[in-house]
Amino acid sequence: MNHKIVLYSLDGCPHCKNVKKFFKSNGIDYINRDVGESDAAAEEAVKISGQMGVPVTVIDDETVIVGDDIRQLKALLLEPEGNDISKKVYDLIIIGAGASGLSASIYAARKNIDFIVVSGSVGGMVKQSAVVENFPSYPEISGEKLMNKIYEHAKKAGANFVDDAVTGIIKEDGLFKIDTIGSGTLSSKTVIAATGRSPRLTQAKGEDEFFGKGVAICSTCDGPLYKRKTVGVLGGGNTAFDTAIDMADIAKEVHMIVRGDIKADEALVSKLKSKKNVVYHYGFEIVEFGGNKMLEFINLKNLKDGSIEKIQLSGLFLGIGLDANTRIFDGFVNLNNSKEIVIDQNCKTNVDGFFAAGDSTSVFAKQLTSSVGEGVKALISAVEYLKNN
Length: 389
What we know:
The protein is α/β, with parallel strands linked by helices. 27% of the residues lie in helices and 27% in strands. Strands 5, 6, 7, 8, 9, 10 and 21 form a 7-stranded mixed sheet that branches. Helix 9 (266-273) links the parallel strand 14 (253-258) and strand 15. The longest helix is centred in the C-terminal third of the chain and has 21 residues, at 368-388.
């Protein structure tokens, strides 16, 4: 059945590219409306979705899908797949397809074991980085290009990817039972958790209500929707200052909100100071997000005297750090106080046959290159376990 499909997207947005890639690989025709080039398209996208974000896919003038929900697009546009992966037992299931998961999958393919990679997206947080400057052999490359290269390497090596999300895990009769949203319960002899980290939220009043309706994470994805508007950026590290620099070239005015010490590189701090439309708020925290249907203001608390300052704005970008994506493992495997999976030097956990790698673990170095190495270590440990059990 042919469908009328309109995609509201932004050039450079990794989530938009995921949707376009899905359409192209399945021969699905669609009309693309770039919200960065057309203010009218941007207004339409917000009106249709009720959110300040892309991609927005409209199918047959009725169904609206916000984000790169490939599972929902498959269900609506493709015939059901006949292969039932829930009926077999794998040697290994890798959960996550960021730097650790992808590197583990390359080595798993080389070891010729029966495995799959389960992940809702490929590339992790790195894919949202405009520039990566610390990966050996690439003095400068976009995060998206780098992760796509590693992904293509993994596929060429023989890795099989399942687009799904894991909701729970148990170990029963020596096998891991992994519950997923779309593929049922999957079984394996070993598991590597490489689930990475996600942006931290403030937990302030109104944040949940206005998330996606003014409260945002990615300036690459959503920045142009705030063209000529007043926005805020929260945080004192590189992520926050990078975001503020991007938004200073797009928005009418940027409010830079820093709670404590500035931890960003001096080069980024200097670059932001060169922008003439940035207002600084040092020693403040957000206590409330407010508005009607969309974000209209934030209330800031002065940490010195406790006074409240109200700022009128249309968007607030969060850049206050990352938390480990380990909720599904809580109670199954040992986590530390930061909810990171506790591992030893060989990526082993307290659960036999369950290994973990990368930013979701207790390793000190949360770096792209170290995550690649940790993925390899976890795979070697998993293979060793398979040999002896």
